[in-house]
Amino acid sequence: MNIEYNELMVNDIESRRAFLFTLEWLLALMKRYSSPLQFGLVHIEYGSNHELGETLGVYEVFKQLASLTASLTSAFRKTDIVGRDVTDFWVIVPYTAENEKLHDKIFSVLQDAKHKGLNVVDREISIFSLPLVLTATEAQDAPVEALKFLEYLKNNKQHFASHVFRLSATQ
Questions:
Q1: 64, HSE (Cβ side, Cα atoms, 13 Å)
Q2: How many domains does the chain have?
C-alpha cells in the first residue's frame, strides 16, 4: 500500500509540473502572437483547502486526491493535461469536438465509486475557453505566470467561465 501511495504522489507531482510548464508556454504563445491559439481549460474545485482535511484526515485526502488525478488523466485524451493545486484540479483541453461533452466525462469520473469519499464537500466545475475575450483593462490585469493566471480565473470564474456546474456534498 505504501509503494502504491508513493507512486500516486510522484505521478501527481509530475502531472502538476507538466501542466504548469505547458500552461506557461501556452500563455506566452497567446501573448506573443496575434493569431489566437484556442483551447479549453477546466477547473474542478473541491471546497476550501481545509474542508476535506478536517473531514477525512490529511493522509486520506492526499491519497484520494492523487488517485483522482490519475483517474482524470486516464479519462481524458493523451493531448489533455491534468494538474492539481491542493484541492483544485485543472485540465488543459486543446480541442473539443462538438459531440464531446466535457462535463459528462468529468461527472463520470467524479461519480466513480473509488472517489465517493471526496463527495463529502461541494464541488464546482468551471469550463473556460481560451484565449479569454478581455477588455483593455482586463488584459492589463490578467497575469501571464501560470499559478497567478489560474488564481485569476478561479476568482473571476463567474465572469470568464463559459459553463459553471455545482455538485453538492450529497451527490
A1: 22
A2: 1
**Cell numbers that stand for 8 in this block:** 500516486
Torsion-angle region of 143 (φ positive above 0: left; ψ -120 to 50: alpha; else: beta) = beta
Tell me what percent of the residues of the chain surpass a pLDDT of 70.
89
Residues 6+ apart with CB under 8 A from 21: none
CATH code, domain with 102: 3.30.70.270
Mean pLDDT for 22-36 is: 81
User: Rounded CA gap, 117 and 96, in Å?
Assistant: 30
Helix and strand totals (H; E) in the chain: 7, 5
pTM for this one?
A: 0.84
Distance CA(128)–CA(132), nearest Å, equals 8
pLDDT at 98: 60
Domain that holds residue 76: 2-167
